[in-house]
Design brief:
The structure is a homodimer.
Chain A lengths: L10 H23 L3 H10 L17 H12 L8 H22 L3 E2 L2 E2 L1 H5 L1 H21 L3 H28 L12 H26 L4 H28 L2 H4 L5 H4 L5 H7 L6 H8 L9 H13 L2 H23 L3 H16 L3
Antiparallel strand pairs in A: 1-2
Chain lengths: ~350, ~350
């Protein structure tokens, strides 16, 4: 997968993503304008709509969640417009989680720019995250469609709980050992990724179907589809975190290895019976403190690849993409939208950033 | 008011507060137990249920919001049980806001103990705040009573937006001048306090009435009642922040003056035409940096008192308590509960901590 040349975004998909973004952005901007001026500007910065000095910019981010919501409404036969309130809510929740996660993880960069806390300070970043979350709920609470609002609020509340659980698990992994009985297992890693990344993508797709009037079993199936897409997406993130091109990802080379992050390629090798484990462990983490040379990190990346960690992770991404596609086929009413959504799953698995 | 001897809590009110706390705490604890272990312990610390080392404690906090919700259900003729889901939600939101506000304000102490961020670090404090908020929404979304859930979620979402607005306004006051055209006015201060403190107390009372099955106009009236109580509560907080007994408030003497906080007693003097203003300004903030001696702070407190800032703030608290009582009289069906709620307003205005 990531070994193949980057296929880019097919023009049909790119058109669809552009369409979804253009459909949802006005409502998203209207929502953000309801924040008080002091934090509204910071919220606009977090969406990539402005620089710190106020210069307007094109928005950043892939718009994956809003597209998932809109396409999920379409594949169940509803209008794309029916999903807008849900798309706005999930994009706001995603923005909230990025702002707060960057504080917790101490990540200084996001999409080639300063993280919000780095640009504006921790206090304002905490508050703007809270504001984005409050706005997500308030937007949904104000949305038309009283008959689906209750279920929509429940879906969003549940995704939030999962997001927090996933982040708590991820943070707890930092203090766990690489090997031995307390090492993080592949199963625990999948639980974490399912909660941290899968839940909100599942919520986006499920909300699209729900607001599009689909029956409960279709809503549940598309939620599941989004979760598989999320797990595939996270697996590819893990591949890019080791083997991604820094010029494209915007992160330093071997970034996840440098930061001692417990990601799927590493965990799958270290919790397996690979003969490479002891040597890998020495390269990754001689004593939990010493900075490693780029040469050591490069050697570690090679070892992980040789020991099958890259193949394992690529296979995991492919398996989840396959499951997502099966669900799309099973529930699709609008086959043009289903084709686009299938292309989106391929893109998520083949992306280079 | 604060000049009068502290009246303590009347036994009828104390019994009622104890009853409300005992009614709501099991459901609140059940909710908190649904957080993942990593942050569940921190959440329990934030409620004062345990120390950092795990020693169990009696809960801290006044339980004002949960009591407001329960008593508001009772005064409209409903059972206290009907308000429990709402009481749990508002207590969780209150806990969320305290944890995050202490980060933003850099406050190291809360209820005579370390603030959460001080005890556990900023990252975990951000996450536990997010978790408490997610839990509030999820608890309400899971609650029985589908016919009121939609309105309850809307009320909570709206209160959250106001909380964030109020905190943003409060933070923006820090960088505003004490005097001149850009000085914070009494009206701006009231807007901020209404959003930061009033909205959640209004939400607590309104939710109690809503879940108790009251008609919309009664829900709106009790929301308004809670807002007045919140404004009275904030005014008394401002009095205690200057003239409170450190042994009782748990904060240093003249704390708000020391921290250069723009509170109602000071704002009312400096934006009025008091001859004391220039001298007060010099004592409060010679250049925005220099630490002031305790003697200077004491002199400033005297000046504010002499210039009428204390009377103005006491009168404001009394006016809001009066409005709250009028509303209670107007809507009460259960007069025993109305009597207790009236005692609660008196307690809020006469408290010493």
């Amino acid at each position: 997968m990531s070994a193949a040349p980057d296929v880019g975004t097919p023009s049909n998909l790119q058109d669809a993503l552009d369409y979804c973004r253009q459909l949802v952005t006005p409502a998203l901007r209207d929502a953000v304008h309801r924040l008080p001026a002091e934090i509204g500007e910071i919220a606009e910065f977090s969406f990539g709509w402005r620089d710190v000095d106020g210069t307007p910019r094109e928005g950043g981010g892939k718009g994956l969640r809003l597209a998932l919501a809109v396409l999920s409404a379409q594949i169940v036969g509803a209008s794309p417009q029916s999903a807008v309130a849900g798309a706005v809510a999930v994009e706001l929740i995603h923005a909230f989680s990025l702002v707060h996660d960057d504080i917790m993880d101490g990540d200084e960069q996001r999409r080639h720019r300063d993280a919000v806390w780095k640009a504006y300070g921790i206090g304002p970043a905490v508050l703007v995250g809270d504001g984005l979350l409050a706005l997500a709920l308030d937007s949904l609470a104000r949305s038309a469609g009283a008959e689906t609002r209750d279920a929509a609020m429940a879906a969003v509340s549940n995704a939030l709980i999962e997001l927090v659980n996933g982040q708590a698990q991820d943070l707890s992994f930092e203090t766990r050992p690489w090997t031995g009985p307390r090492a993080v297992t592949v199963e625990e890693y999948s639980d974490m990724a399912g909660a941290k990344t899968g839940a909100l993508l599942g919520c986006a797709a499920g909300l699209g179907a729900l607001l599009g009037g689909a029956p409960t079993e279709v809503v549940v199936a598309l939620d599941e589809m989004g979760r598989h897409l999320g797990l595939a997406f996270q697996a590819v993130d893990d591949l890019l975190g080791i083997w991604g091109d820094p010029a494209v990802t915007g992160k330093p080379v071997f970034n996840d290895l440098r930061q001692r992050k417990k990601t799927l390629p590493v965990i799958s090798v270290l919790t397996g019976s690979s003969a490479a484990s002891p040597r890998l462990l020495t390269l990754l983490d001689p004593d939990g403190r010493t900075p490693r040379s780029e040469q050591d990190l490069r050697a570690a990346a090679h070892l992980i690849d040789d020991a099958g960690g890259r193949d394992f992770t690529e296979a995991s991404a492919e398996r989840h993409v396959g499951r997502a596609r099966e669900i799309i086929s099973a529930v699709a009413v609008n086959h043009a939208a289903a084709f686009t959504l299938t292309e989106l799953t391929a893109f998520a698995a083949n992306r280079s950033h």
